[in-house]
Amino acid sequence: MAFTEYRIEDLAHRSGATVRTIRAYQDRGLLPRPERRGRANVYDDTHLARLRQITELLERGYTLASIKELLDAWDTGRGLGGVLGLVTEVDGPWSDEQSSRLTRAELSELFGGGYDDEAVSEAVALGVLVPAPDGTGEFVVPSPQELAVAAELHHAGVPLTAVSGHLRELRSRVEHIAARFVDFTNEHVFARYLGHTPSSAEVGEAAELVRKLRPLAQQAVDAELARAMQLLATRNLRDHLHDAVVSGAPGTAVGAGGVGIGVGAGAAVAESRDARVGAATDPPEAPVTAAGHPGTLDAAARPGGAETEWVALPAATVAAVRALVGADRTAAFVAAAAEREVAARTMDRLAEPPPYGERPRGSGERA
Fold first, then answer.
1. In which band, very low, low, confident or very high, does the pLDDT at 332 lie, cut at 50, 70 and 90?
2. What are phi and psi for residue 287, nearest 5 degrees?
3. Which of 27, 34, 131, 227 is deepest in the core (most CB within 10 A)?
């Protein structure tokens, strides 16, 4: 096979490297020495291919020292092709998402009009936006999904500074999760390939394993995030509904826009800081009975016939509950909601793992 021959200036032009860089690579042993013909140095296509390999590895973040090791492996017959295949597998995109491009006008429209230079600069610093290399003033968007999330949060009322701050925090936590996943797979999957220069067959096996394991990290995180969001969002909603039912607004009390509800003592309703609680024998002047009307809450109307205490609730809250379940079920609903909340929080506490160093006592252990 005939090779095209180059002078060093021609090789620099074809490869995109400078003459000084080519000579530096030669001095470090990254590039084979050229053939000497009289007073001229002659390069060929093998030198061009090697320069392109070096450039590709540098763009992937490899140092010249690590590139030297890879190239030495190739030169001694250990197969740089397989190593580069593994490099390509690991360095390739870990998502099927395709990047997109946006003009400044399209970016402004996505975020509701107006162009915030400070927010754009922050997005560029985070890598959410990348200035297009062709000088058009457009932006490359590596993850359109991530940018769409930011836009939706902004439309919902979240300031852009808060969005970028949350992303920074999220990124640090996710990078920690990714590092743990890498450590985990190194320990249990890739340990046999580490600590020595792998053979071509081993490199191929490792690349195939990366290909198979690649989606597992995202699948595991997606599943756990969905589980955690369901748990915490449900708990958050429950807490807010609980507060809306049993807590008065600041300054609310009986006689000042508040309404007394008689609930069973066993319901254990949490009293708010402005609620007034009295014994059943000392009810407010205008209590709301189990039927939802002012009057006296008799024993038959009390939830379960239990002893009652009078708790001041905002009139608006009582009206909302009454509209939801009916006047005759208002008191029973409030009591049931409180009992359910107490039971849920008790279950949450019981489900929490014991402090480090402690363990639950078994049935056969003595206290």
1. confident
2. -70, 160
3. 34
Give per-residue pLDDT as tens, 301-322.
444 455 667 777 778 788 888 8
- Backbone φ and ψ of 94, nearest 5°: -100, 25
How far is it, in rounded angstroms, from Cα 63 to Cα 224?
36
Residue 299 structure tokens: 């024993």
Between CA 122 and CA 160 the distance in angstroms is 9
Q: Mean pLDDT across the stretch 167-184?
A: 91
Give yes or no for a contact between 168 and 126, defined as CB atoms under 8 angstroms apart. yes
Rg (CA), the chain: 35
Percentage of the chain beyond pLDDT 90 is 23
Which H helix or E strand runs over 178?
helix 160-188
Burial classification of residue 260, based on how many CB atoms lie within 10 Å of its CB (0-12 exposed, 13-18 middle, 19 or more buried): buried
Instruction: Tell me the two tokens of residue 52.
Output: 């392109």
> Given the structure tokens 């763009």, which residue do they identify?
59
* SS3 category, 159: coil
> CB neighbours of 112 closer than 8 A, spacing ≥ 6?
154, 155
How confident is the model over 215-264, as pLDDT tens digits? 888 899 999 999 999 998 888 887 777 776 655 444 333 343 444 545 44
3-state secondary structure of 202: helix
Distance CA 81, CA 70 (A): 10
**Phi/psi of residue 310, nearest 5 degrees:** -100, 125
